[in-house]
Each structure stands twice: as structure tokens, then as C-alpha cells.
Amino acid sequence: MELIKKYYRNVIVLLLGVLLLSIGGALFLTANIGSDSLMVFNQGISVVLKTKVGLAIMISNIIALFIIFFINKKTLGLGSLAIIFLLGPTIQIIKDANIFKTPNTLILQILMVLIGIVIGGLGLALYMYADLGLSPFEGIIVTISNETKVRFGIIKIIFDAIYFTTGALLGGVFGIGSIMTVFLYGPTIDMFMKLLKKTNIIKKRS
């Protein structure tokens, strides 16, 4: 509670980020032409477990939490818990509410993915900018990068390839949308991060 009181603006930014990230994820799923690597991975898990994607997201994050807790728990924080317990359920609520409809043409499906990349990219940038801890999956990548001295970007590419391949083999949807996220998601997040860093919305953690 003390952390929330002290960094309440960070918490608000974090929760807004998770909400936007969830909307972006729901748009990816609704477009149905492929998502980012972790979504494809979680779709595959949901097929194997015969459960909804939202629950699969929570399950995979909890497993990743146990891993990162033992190898580098310093990366964890309130933001980690928000990703674990809020992201999956929020995505599922939005999906089940049928707020978005799957377009009947490829052009509109691609447009939906593009909108998802912008909204989700802003959400991810807000969550990172809040500086309240990494998601378990990001924590693992950061830890491996620090320990091996290999750049974060290279480790992430390797993990993304693993997630895409595993997810697709398990039944996740890999397609044009997935390729779009590979080339556009990172630059979109970077753009929003640069803009956010010029503001004084959050309180810097000491």
C-alpha cells in the first residue's frame, strides 16, 4: 500500500497501459490473421489445454513468474503482478463482449492489426514507462541478456522465434499479422517511449 501511495501516478499509468495493451491484444485475436509472438504462444497453449486465451496468458505468466523469481526476482514488482493477473482476464472480457467483429476482408483485417499495434504499442510503452517492474517473460530475457552479455534485442529475437514456432505448432494463429508485429511493434513502442520520457507524468523511483 505504501508503494501505491507514494507512486500513485505510476500506478495509474501502469493500469492504463495494461488496459490499452489488452485492447490491442483483443484486436489481434479478433483480426485472426496472426498476433505477436507471445499471443501466438498463448493461443497454442489455450488449444492444448482446451481453455480460453485469457486463462492461458495467466497460466504462462505464472509459470514464467516462478522461473524469474528464482533467477532474478529484482525484476519483479507491481507491474509484474498487473501483467500476470490483469492482462489475460481483461483481454478475455473484451473478446467475450464482442466489442470488435472480425472483418470480412483481408484489407480490413490488416487495418485492425495496425490499430492493435498502435494501441497495444502505446499500452506497452505506458506500462514500461511506469517503471513498476517487468513482466515475467521480459524479466527472463533481461536476465539472460545481463548474464550472457548478449544484447537484449538479439535474445528477444531468439525468444520470439521460439514463441512463434512453438505457438504455431500447438495451434496458435501465425500469419500476416504476426509478420506485421515483428517489424512494426518495436518501432511503435520506441516512438511512444520517446514521447513519454519528455513528460513528467510519473514520479521517478529512487
DSSP E strands, number = 0
Beta-strand content bin: under 5%
Average pLDDT taken over every residue? 94
Q: Rg, please?
A: 16 Å
User: What best-fitting shape do the alpha-carbon axes yield?
Assistant: globular
* Cα-to-Cα separation, first versus last residue: 17 Å
Reported for the largest beta sheet, the result is: none
Helical fraction equals over 70%
- Number of helices, where a helix is a run of at least 4 consecutive DSSP H or I residues: 9
H/E element sequence: HHHHHHHHH
Low-pLDDT residue intervals, each spanning 5 or more residues: none
Write out key terms for the chains shown.
206 residues; mainly alpha; 9 helices
What does this structure look like?
Helix content is 78%, strand content 0%. With 206 residues, the chain is an all-alpha fold. The protein is globular, with a radius of gyration of 16 Å. 46% of the residues are buried.
